[in-house]
Prior knowledge:
Layout: H1 22-48, H2 51-56, H3 62-75, H4 79-104
Amino acid sequence: MLCGQLGVDVLGARPYPYYVPPVVDTVLSVLMIAVLVTTVYAFVHAAMQRPDAYTAAEKLTKPVWLIILGVAAALSFIGVFGMAIAACAAGVYLVDVRPKLLDIQGKSR
């Protein structure tokens, strides 16, 4: 997605079959990086928690969340639809699962 002038990437190929203004391409690139960083943060946080905390919080198991967040991180590279799926997966983990895990483990703020 990181393109130069007139929608041409570093290798000279057009990443889109149509003209995309550089501002739109820049915004999408920044969003992609933000979603990727958020998803990787959620993945690392999920990996660092105790496996029994997930069942105590009545959430999906630790391996399931690691698979969901790992696939979400990979999907963040596949266009806008992939970024939306990754943002939803990371958002659900960070807003719903993470606070309950921290509360169960006595680490809540």
